[in-house]
Amino acid sequence: MILINLLPHREAARKRRREAFFVSLGASAVVGGIIAGAIFGWYEVQISNQQGRNATLKTEITRLEGQIKDIENLQGEIAALRARQQAVEDLQADRNLPVHLLNELVKQLPDGVYLTSMKQENQVVTITGTAQSNERISELLRNLAGNSPWIAKPELGEITAGAVQLSPRDTRRVSNFTLKVRLLRASEVQKAQAAASGASAPASAASIAART
């Protein structure tokens, strides 16, 4: 016997495929939503953790900035204390500066030069005097410039012609002069001596090496 199916099987198959498609589409949407939610939650956790770390870093940075300010204040106080200490040491050393000045002038004063007055303002000393000739004044300047560790930067102010009455019949022409010098402190003299010794040591070593 031959059986004939008179039902609309094509429409039924098409309906079943459509239903399967919508089911798979819904399942895909659900799975995609779950995955997207999981990814979103993971990112939220990461962001929250990073925000916590950022807050911790900000707190530490604020604390470190406070410590840096404290250190800067301490450094400023230390620098001020050192400046005060240096000022006290300079004042103590400056008490002997007039003695050094007079000793150096006695050593460096050439024959035929006579000092009439001296005036000191801080470390600058103004000297006035009389010399037998301009050559004597030049010799005094050379001596003060190169032979004295306590005197630096001699500067000639002016030279004027004058006369000295030795006797009623003996009048001699002289040169009146004014010059300024800078009187060095003990700390400056020590630094200059240390620099000179440091520069002479390599030179001595080089000369010894050249000889050998």
| Order of helical and strand elements | HHEEHEEH
Enumerate how many helices there are, as a single number: 4
Shape: rod-shaped
Largest sheet: 4 strands, antiparallel
Distance between the termini: 133 Å
C-alpha Rg, in Å? 49 Å
Helical residues, percent: 55-70%
Low-confidence stretches: none
Query: What is the topology, as strand order, of the major beta sheet?
Result: 1-2-4-3
- Beta percentage is 15-25%
Q: How much is the average pLDDT?
A: 82
Backbone structural class: alpha+beta
Using DSSP, what is the number of strands? Answer: 4
Query: Quaternary status of these chains?
Result: single chain
What does it look like?
With 212 residues, this protein is α+β, with helices and mostly antiparallel strands. It contains four helices and four strands. Strands 1-2-4-3 form a four-stranded antiparallel beta sheet.
